Inverse folding.
């Protein structure tokens, strides 16, 4: 297995775990890996009348950086612009509140992952 293939599988597993975690907290999935010309949003969830744009970040360890620290200004801008595209494409939800959350996962194996949910991260 190549390094890129391994990273993609690890990232997909992290997204799956994050999705299940949020669904256990009574959130409904609206979109997964929503793309626009500006970028991609990992998960778009709904909780009551709030749309939550979720960035999922995972790392095997936090020796050098916490996963949330890898979301720089450029990435936040891409997520914001992509969220605006999503809201324009779903006018029925235009009156909903919205926010940007981050789910971080650290660990090497699925059953060892530590999940942290940062609400209104940016």
């Amino acid at each position: 297995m190549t390094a890129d293939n391994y990273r993609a599988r690890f990232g997909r597993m992290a997204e799956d775990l994050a999705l299940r975690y949020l669904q256990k907290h009574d959130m409904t999935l609206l979109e997964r890996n929503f793309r626009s010309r500006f970028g991609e949003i990992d998960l778009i969830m709904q909780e009551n009348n709030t749309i939550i744009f979720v960035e999922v970040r995972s790392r095997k360890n936090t020796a050098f950086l916490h996963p949330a620290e890898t979301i720089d200004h450029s990435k936040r801008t891409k997520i914001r612009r992509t969220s605006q595209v999503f809201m324009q494409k779903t006018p029925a939800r235009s009156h909903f509140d919205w926010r940007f959350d981050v789910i971080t996962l650290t660990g090497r194996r699925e059953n060892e992952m530590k999940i942290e949910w940062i609400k209104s991260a940016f």
About this structure: The longest strand covers residues 50-59.
